[in-house]
Amino acid sequence: MSIIPVDPKQFSKFIDNSKIFDMTRRFMRDYLTNWYSDDAETFVEDMRGDLTAVLKKYHFHNEFVSITKNFNFDPPMDTVSCTIHISDEDNDCCTRYTAVFDNHLNLIDIYTKG
Prior knowledge:
By secondary structure, this protein is of the alpha+beta class. The protein contains four helices and four strands, in the order ααααββββ. The protein has helices at 8-18, 20-38, 40-47, 51-57, and strands spanning 59-70, 77-87, 93-101, 107-113. A four-stranded antiparallel sheet has the order 1-2-3-4. β1 (59-70) and β2 form a beta hairpin. It is globular, with a radius of gyration of 16 Å.
């Protein structure tokens, strides 16, 4: 018996119906493009390739979706996080891109972690 108060079938259905990975990929592409435009040198250093190489040759793996009670807000807010793992041509991880959405799936934060 699961003690987590979320029905796994409903959660899977939510992921499919919301197309959250597709939405996150659109935001990720904008983020990568803006990062490259703002600071190409750091982008190439961190990602080990220029924007064209990253977008055309790298691998983008759906990693996870999670529901979180986020206590960084007052009052605490329910959020949904979606993470995509970005790896280079050799399948070495470059970074993980995470988009954080409110309970209406409005983007409220993004972050990357190498």
